[in-house]
Amino acid sequence: MKAKEYDQDAERVILLKPSNSQSRNMRIVYLITIIITIFLGLASRKWSLSLSPFVAQNAGDVLWAIMVYFGFRFLLVQKSTLTAILLSFLFSFSIEFSQLYQENWINQIRATTLGALILGKGFLIEDLIRYTVGILIAAVLDKVSLKFTLRSY
Fold first, then answer.
1. Does the chain have fewer CB atoms within 10 Å around its N or its C terminus?
2. In a structure prediction context, what are the per-residue pLDDT tens digits for the chain, which is 153 residues long?
3. What is the dihedral of CA 24, 28, 29, 33, to 10 degrees?
4. Which of 58, 84, 75 is nearest to 143 (CA)?
5. What is the pTM of this model?
6. Residue 122, SS3?
7. Is the dihedral of CA 151, 15, 32, 24 positive or negative?
């Protein structure tokens, strides 16, 4: 994908969107990244006793936020990374703040494994910090990989 095309007559830069085949390839990469992130997140829970306490305590939420970011990149491949960052913050923080709502019906969903993984169980300010770190890590990795990829075109 060419990131920029130069209009020599007007001497200005025109930003291009990825073509359909490039978007498909990018979606495949984002999907693989999501799957790897899910695997790492589940592994961080399963083998938490083998990890340092700091990593065991923080890795799950950081990886969850990374997965959310790459999920938005997968869905909105032709949008900017800033859009994915903002949507990731909105989604992650909304999920966390929704944990302040403690009605019986939603707590029954949270009591299931999938419900707990997606919705969490209780509000923690620390989780907002972990989500912020995860989203920023994902965005930096995404930007670096896009720059590297764009150089080859």
1. C
2. 444 554 554 444 444 566 778 889 999 999 999 999 999 999 999 999 999 999 999 999 999 999 999 999 999 999 999 999 999 999 999 999 999 999 999 999 999 989 988 898 889 999 999 999 999 999 999 999 988 776 655
3. 140
4. 84
5. 0.82
6. coil
7. negative
| CA 63/CA 52 separation, integer angstroms | 16
- Are residues 64 and 21 in contact, defined by beta-carbon separation less than 8 angstroms? no
Nearest alpha-carbon partner for 57 in 116, 130, 115: 130
For residue 88, count CB atoms less than 10 angstroms from its CB and return exposed for 0-12, middle for 13-18, buried for 19 or more: buried
Place of tokens 């209009």: 7
* Cβ proximity of 96 and 61 under 8 Å: no
DSSP code, position 19: P
Q: Residues 6 or more apart from 19 whose CB is under 8 A from it?
A: 1
